[in-house]
Amino acid sequence: MPKKVERDRMGMIIREEDAPEKMEVELTEVKAPGDDDSPVLIYYNWCKKCGICVAFCPTGCLGRKADGSPYVAAPEKCIHCETCDRLCPDFAITGAKDR
Amino acid sequence: MANIPQRIIHEWLRHDKKFPHVWCAGCSNGIVLGSIIRALAGMNIDRDDIVMVSGIGCSSRMPVYVDFNTLHTLHGRSIAYATGIKMHKPHLKVIVITGDGDCTAIGGNHMIHAARRNIDLTVILINNSIYGMTGGQASPTTPHEAIATTAPYGNIEPDFNVCDLAMGAGASFVARTTAFHTVEVQNIVREAIDHPGFALIEVISACPVIYGRLNKKGGPPQMLKDMRDNSVPLSAAEKLPPEKLEGKIIRGVLRKEIKPEFCASYADLVKRVQAMGGEK
Hints:
Mean pLDDT of chain A: 73
CATH class of one domain in chain A: Alpha Beta
Largest sheet of chain B: 8 strands, mixed
Helix content of chain B: 25-40%
Oligomer: heterodimer
Distance between the termini of chain A: 26 Å
Order of helices and strands of chain A: HEHEEHE
Largest sheet of chain A: 2 strands, antiparallel
Number of strands of chain B: 10
């Protein structure tokens, strides 16, 4: 159970002591269930739901949830082109083979 | 060109800072930051030899998040600070991150004089056509007739062509690209850092939340698609007639020439005067 973090209106972490110290901790927390063998890894707590990765995915591997965040709709379609990786403004998605 | 996975970018970020970062959803600043980190990571430069300097603005928040030597300075004065750093320690790679308001309005003077001196700085000017951080005022690069909060009926001023300004001031490396063309940004940043002299890279970027909403440009994906569709590489633009280039962004390295570099000239002067024993 991840601890409750106070956030402000913009989704920023308010209290300094709540900020995660190391990336490793955060990455394991944000992985969606079953993402380990998915070709695309999405870090949901860094994602701002702008929709760029879904719009530019050339094969239609990614889909968009009702709240706007991406999900891997068709894992077999991923060609590891890294377009989502490069165009994500928030470093929140990676489709690279070596990640 | 080696592929730099996202893991490397995460390694180069400062994790004691607040993430997700401060920029709005879909802001191009994050894409440009990713491209810059990819360029630097591929160059095998020691992180301690990179200095990133910025002024005030949305794009100038960038050095806060990266794990180099960084300096967040006064509005518009980033190039003045960077000149000081470069003069004191010429072996450092000094990168200035600046926005259109920061570099062409309040810091325009510093930019043209650094270009004239040809000091070895790499200035990455992220041009989103508006003052985003302070609420959408018109900047010197807001296009003619575009809407801004200080120009609600359309901007009556003509806009700056930043690359022409830098070339007129004598910059030895001038390039223009867009945030969408991430591989091109990566290659140009690498070329600019290797270039001995003043380098200015104008990166056209999207501000979907303020500029995009005021001017009804669609969401972040649409603004990136517009960049892709409305830009022409320099090699193709040379062959096209001028009427087909109207309203298009011309991408590529517009000027690259070797001129005497300021720090090297200064070191020569010091050597010469010391040999004379300080006498005229």
